[in-house]
Amino acid sequence: MSFTVHGIGVSDGIAIGPAQLAAEGQLEVAHYSVPPSRVAEEVVRLEGALAAVRRELQDLKAHIPAHAPAELEAFLDVHMMILADATLSERTAELIRSQQCNAEWALKQQADALMAQFDRIGDSYMRERKADVRQVVERVLKSLLGHGNGIPVPPSPEQGNILVAHDLSPADVVQFKQHPYASFVTDVGSATSHTAILARSLNIPCIMALHHARQLIREGDMLIVDGDQGVVIVNPDSPVLAEYRLRRREWELGRQKLKRLRTTAATTLDGTPVELHANIELPEDVAQAQENGATGIGLFRTEFLFLKRGDLPDEQEQFEAYRKVVMAMDGLPITIRTLDLGADKQLGGITASGTNPALGLRAIRLCLAEPKLFIVQLRALLRASAYGTLRILIPMLSTAAEIRQTHQLIEEAKRSLEADGIAFDRDTEIGGMIEIPAAALTLKTFLRELDFLSIGTNDLIQYTLAIDRTDDSVAHLYDPLHPAVLQLLARVIRTANQAKISVSICGEVAGDVALTRLLLGLGLRVFSMHPAQLLEVKQRILQSSVPAAESVTKRILRTEDPQRISSLLAKLNV
Ligand code: PEP
Ligand code: MG
Questions:
Q1: Percent of the chain at pLDDT above 90?
Q2: Is 474 part of any domain?
Q3: Which of 38, 333, 417, 490 is the most exposed place for a label (fewest CB within 10 A)?
């Protein structure tokens, strides 16, 4: 039976393919079958993950801090016992063999069965052990996923599977960069969550906030995902399928045509030059930035190097990642943001989710609270600065004191590199993200301490309007055109331009063609966005005139009436 499910389209395009369901509950894993020839390999992978977790637990036990609660050792012993128990290890291996499925799925099935048994036990002590089983299973799953092979891979990439999940974390999605899902859809989430941002960077259609899709859709159902309209058509009939195949072809042709603009300079009709930079999450993304003609990297979200793995990348690993980007971009400016962990990017053992993680120990706050972690990154960044034009960007600044503390740590990192005789660029520019209203309102202090600014509109809007950017129940209120947001943007761009300090926008509004002329009218000349959006924005710039944009923008800034703002914007975009 054909039916449709509606949500929020967060990444454009059309995908057609069979549904692949992620497991329900907290532990999101995909289910795929493994050919008989690879079953033994899958069992070995499970054994490898079990062994890695055993080592991890042994290591933890060997390094119990002096002030740790006395129960910690007993707790680790219980976890080791659970891990060693045949009901977890052997039974999971048997499931892999009998069901010819991936290790994650088998483990999840076995864990669910075990936890259901615990629920039936009358003894409250035993019932509490259920949480321990879950934690152990989570560790093993992380290990499986962190080692790459366990990433939910569609069995036949050419079929263009569509992943249907209740929820996916940014860390889940970043793994898809290597694995060709044609699309993914989720029950929760909203357009500026990091999960949605990643979907756009993958250039695949994506819909969120579908609410019940995970329950309604069955494994293997044929799906059409229409990212523009935010609709999933389940088991479409032939005429609908034919119509969408045609639309998908047209969409692809449109994208191919845009490729012709790759080397064209982004200059407006009146001759104003504009820089179009790319946002990336991993060094491999540089290829896409280059394919789309980016003239620099405006935002490298380095925290993605830290997600989905059991350990932290050390200085050498980070240095190599940063250098790779710097060298690949061959002299073009590279802006690398220091760790923005916390909120929707959690890292076990480092971040605390807190009661309100978006307002908690996130980004620079976390780095200043964990200077050892931060210094490792700063040294790696400075080392990479010797290989090209690298700029360091500090996220989530709210006070000048944070900038000063950061400068002190940067100086410390420089002194230690000098002591080690390691080369770096002494004049590496340090910039700050303006994404908290307090920073936007006290900008002069920031201008004195920083070499450049980058406006993070995703958070600036979230914090100005008090809208959780990951919560779909308030997504309709998340509005870049809110007069308060426009006033803040106008103020930051104007003040930076007057002070002759470079200012860019690296939030999602920079990649939204409906806002390109408005941003030009506000005086923005450097845009940073996901590579997939870059050529469309360039096309719009080529068709725009700055004086015309400025005159309508002035009128937009004079009104607080939302309807008037949208009609003026429509006028600007004709
Ligand atoms: C922003 O907040 O606009 C931004 C670019 O940073 P992130 O989306 O990673 O929080
Ligand atoms: Mg941000």
A1: 64
A2: yes
A3: 38
User: Each residue of 392-444: pLDDT tens digit?
Assistant: 999 999 999 999 999 999 999 999 999 999 999 999 999 999 999 999 999 99
> What separation in Å is there between the alpha carbon of 320 and the centre of ligand 1?
24
Mutate to test the pocket of ligand 1, among 280, 299, 458 (most ligand atoms within 8 A of CB): 458
Query: Ligand 1, atom 1: nearest CA belongs to which residue?
Result: 456
pLDDT tens digit sequence for 288-304: 999 999 999 999 999 99
Of 546 and 349, which is predicted with more confidence?
Answer: 546
- State the Cα–Cα distance between residues 92 and 266, nearest whole angstrom: 56
CA–CA distances in Å: residue 309 to residues 172, 175, 196, 304: 11, 11, 21, 10
| CA-CA-CA-CA torsion sign (566, 570, 571, 572) | positive
Find the distance separating the first CA and the last CA of the chain, reported in whole Å. Answer: 42
Residue 463 inside a domain? The answer is yes
pLDDT at 253: 93
Domain end point (choices 89, 124, 145): 145
| Helix, strand, coil tally for the chain in percent (to 5) | 55, 15, 30
Residue 31 lies in a domain: no
* CA 168 – CA 49 distance, rounded (Å): 22
Rounded to the nearest whole angstrom, what is the distance from the C-alpha of residue 434 to the centroid of ligand 1? 10
Q: Is 506 a catalytic residue?
A: yes
**Do both 156 and 136 map to the same domain?**
no
Number of H helices, E strands in the chain: 22, 16
Distances (CA, A) of 76 to 64, 105, 120, 310: 10, 25, 25, 17
SS in 3 state form for 520-546? Answer: HHCCCCEEEECHHHHHHHHHHHHCCCH
Of 19-23, 309-313, 476-480, 510-514, the one with minimum mean pLDDT is 309-313
Domain that residue 220 falls in: 3-22+151-258
* pLDDT tens per residue, range 263-294: 999 999 999 999 999 999 999 999 999 999 99
User: Are 132 and 252 members of one domain?
Assistant: no
pLDDT mean across residues, the chain: 89
Asked if 506 and 248 touch (Cβ cutoff 8 Å), the reply is: no
CATH of the domain at 220: 3.50.30.10
